[in-house]
Design a protein that fits this description.
Isopropylmalate Dehydrogenase, 15% strand, 10 strands
Length: 313
């Protein structure tokens, strides 16, 4: 299998050290990977931390990266992502694993995309919006609305958005996760899924029409379900992925179940992309104490998804 392309992420964050830790733990079932970063920076980091990681260049890399968040780093950060996309589209890499970026620095440098997901979609030439999934061994969740204030998320909720997320998720479960006949669980928005309209009408007016559309497309769907009863162990065994109406409804259960091992996956791209489910962690960067479990899980899942996609295609 081809190696995975790992992007540098924010150079002032923990991406470099967790990538070095993942390399040190590569004997534990971690697929071969290479890092798109500044070779001298990574070698110096390994020496400073006292980690025996031999670093050698395999191609041109970004240079001149300071050790604190700075918009001047934006060209190198974005260049690493662009290089990874070229590599995966040309089949040099099997999948992309992205280290966390610092969006504020990118915005101050003129970056016009909300984040990684939208930028990758643009680089890939994808017209339809990609879908974010969070994955751990016992749960997959998809937030229909993502980084919006709760009031805005409710106002933005549409049957078309739910149906789109459901279609993309079902297709990805079949193609990338090997689930032949996926079952989706759709969370309600209100307490007790609205209690038939007594606690809110969004289930009746927005969510149920989306469910009807998904069922008409031949997708097995449960819901709308009360969100407070759909994430315990027995309930999770009844579906393959849960569609949630807003950010915290999806992320609270998965981070409670597997805080250090969750993986962020982008669905709907012409290649596999995974990422650790955490940020840049500036407060501990460079100290060698950052935990690498989420990156290692992202490497394993990226390799597994790429292998399943190769078989499906």
């Amino acid at each position: 299998m081809r190696p995975l392309a790992v992007t540098m992420g924010e150079p002032a964050g923990i991406g470099g050290e967790i990538t070095l830790k993942a390399w040190l733990g590569r004997g534990d079932g971690v697929q071969a990977f290479y890092l798109i970063d500044d070779c001298d920076r990574i070698a110096a980091l390994a020496r400073r931390l006292g980690w025996p990681v031999p670093v050698r260049p395999i191609g041109s890399t970004p240079r001149g990266l300071p050790g604190h968040p700075d918009p001047a780093d934006a060209p190198a950060v974005l260049g690493a992502i662009e290089t990874a996309v070229r590599h995966v589209l040309s089949r040099r890499a099997a999948a992309i694993v992205t280290n966390p970026i610092h969006k504020d620095s990118l915005y101050r440098a003129g970056f016009r995309y909300p984040g990684h997901t939208e930028y990758l979609a643009a680089l890939a030439g994808v017209a339809e919006a990609p879908v974010m999934m969070l994955v751990c061994p016992t749960l997959r969740v998809v937030p229909v609305t993502i980084h919006l204030a709760l009031r805005q998320a409710i106002l933005a909720l549409r049957p078309s958005a739910i149906a789109h997320a459901g279609r993309v998720t079902a297709a990805a479960l079949a193609r990338d996760f090997g689930v032949a006949a996926p079952t989706l669980a759709i969370a309600g928005l209100n307490p007790h899924a609205g209690e038939g309209g007594a606690l809110g009408c969004e289930e009746i007016e927005i969510i149920e029409p989306a469910i009807a559309e998904l069922r008409a497309a031949g997708i097995d769907v449960l819901g709308p379900l009360a969100a407070d009863t759909m994430f315990h162990a027995e309930a999770r065994r009844s579906y393959d992925a849960a569609l949630c109406m807003y950010h915290d409804q999806a992320l609270i259960p998965i981070k409670t179940i597997d805080f250090h091992g969750g993986v962020n996956v982008t669905l709907g791209l012409p290649f596999v992309r995974t990422s650790p489910d955490h940020g840049t962690a500036f407060a501990i960067a460079g100290r060698g104490v950052a935990r690498a479990e989420s990156l290692i899980a992202a490497l394993r899942l990226g390799a597994d998804m790429a292998a399943k996609r190769a078989v499906a295609d």
